[in-house]
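Reminder to self: keep the SMILES exactly as supplied, no canonicalising. Ligand is flavin mononucleotide.
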Amino acid sequence: MKEAIIYDSLSGNTESLAQTIKEQKKDIIYEKIKETTKETIKDINILYIGSPIIKGTCTKKIEDLLMSLENKKIFLFFTAGYGGSKEYYETLKNRILEYISKTNQILGVFFCQGKMNDTVKDRYVDLIKEHPDDRKLQVSLENFEQAKTHPNEKDKEHLIEEIRKINLT
Ligand SMILES: Cc1cc2nc3c(=O)[nH]c(=O)nc-3n(C[C@H](O)[C@H](O)[C@H](O)COP(=O)(O)O)c2cc1C
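Structure tokens returned for the bound complex:
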């Protein structure tokens, strides 16, 4: 079975998960998504596809790739700024699975948090000054702080565990 890791990443979080998978696999094709990726993966059976969550879904490049796939085995991995809620990940997962044709087999879907840019924090801090009683803003700020250390070693261990669980029969 030929395998490939294809990922997109704006600030390196998802890329660090892609590298973690790569370290576990010998001779795996490894590529940050680009125009020619569809050609690269033509003869690949198993794809590990990663993306950051941007505005509630994967990146457009990954969406286009997912929509083009037929008869592949796919493991998806994502980093998202917001975390700590299974429901949130479940919503994102269902949204993204809609892009994938039923001819493919989903081997697994992994999510963890990924740190965000400090400008996000600055925006929350400014908003809290204007609306000091807004609990939602406080929660968002706490979430920002929580995301700061992710993806961490534990996240990477969980990712490897999930990949080991894959049953390729
Ligand atoms: C423009 C932009 C939009 C984002 N939108 C979301 C979002 O809708 N939901 C979320 O959970 N995180 C969102 N994030 C946070 C990223 O998903 C998170 O920081 C991720 O780990 C970035 O991964 P990367 O370093 O691989 O690009 C957004 C980040 C950016 C820059």
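Points to follow up:
Residues 118-130 form the longest helix (13 residues).
Residues 116-149 form one domain.
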